[in-house]
Amino acid sequence: MHVERYEKIFMALTLVVLLAALAAIGAGVFAAGVHLPSPSGRMDPKAIRQTPPFDRPGIREVAPGEYEAVIIARAWAFEPNEIRVPRGSTVRFRVASADVIHGFLVENTNVNVMVIPGQVAEVTARFERPGEYVFLCHEYCGFGHHQMFGKVIVE
Ligand code: CUA
To answer: pTM of the full predicted structure?
Structure first.
């Protein structure tokens, strides 16, 4: 079989690009620690109101300046839909669905997770600047999807 010289070069370049891409993925996973969010726990959506901590949705202080926000996402509201914390607080959000797939995004933060029935989504954010941070459902969940929002008030 005859292979042209430029074909060989092209094949070699393909290999180089492939190896570079794999190396980039490897560096991201093993060196930078990039990974998909994984569920922090499991629960039965039907029994959500009997399952701690979702039997008591709301915000509570777990340490000085550290809060845990337990939020139920359901069609079509967040419970609670208003959270107040002092500025400089670190808030660990724990969100679970009572029915279908929802999303949870807090504007101007790194909080952006899917809320999958049966799984507990957990994500932490620090609120340095006072103001209102709107959170909303970003996963189409039916007729009232656009009404699914709330806010974090940083005082
Ligand atoms: Cu819940 Cu869209």
So the answer is: 0.78
